[in-house]
Amino acid sequence: MPDNFKSLKEVFEKEPRLKTLRNIINAYSVVADFNIIFPEFKKMVIPVKVEKKSLFLSVENSVWRNELKFKEKEIIEKINNHFKTEIIKWLKFI
Q: pLDDT tens digits for 29-75?
């Protein structure tokens, strides 16, 4: 094997031209993994989409929306720690 050989994973993670693709995959992963990261929210919160570093959450009622608003920083931090990169900056409730 040549000395300059790179694995597909290494190329995908480090190639600057693939940054947009990485961001799209990470955004879909946040929505897909939300209930794994937060199993306690499974019955009250539905992740809808990620757009421009904002995670859109559909919340069952206004009481839960207010509760989540108080925990917003913790939720964002937990998501970003799970993916080891800053994917989410804001939460938007719908």
A: 999 999 999 999 998 999 999 999 999 999 988 999 999 999 999 99
- Largest pairwise CA distance in the chain: 60
pLDDT in tens, 21-41: 888 888 899 999 999 999 999
Domain positions in the chain are 8-93
DSSP β-bridge partners for residue 54: 51, 90
Structure tokens belonging to residue 46: 């539905």
- Cα(47)–Cα(88) distance, integer angstroms: 13
H-helix or E-strand spanning residue 90: strand 90-93
Considering the domain 8-93 in this protein, what is its CATH number?
3.30.300
User: HSE on the CB side for 85, CA within 13 Å?
Assistant: 11
* SS3 category, 6: coil
**Residue 50, number of CB atoms within 10 A of its CB:** 21
**Residue 75 tokens, joined:** 């939720």
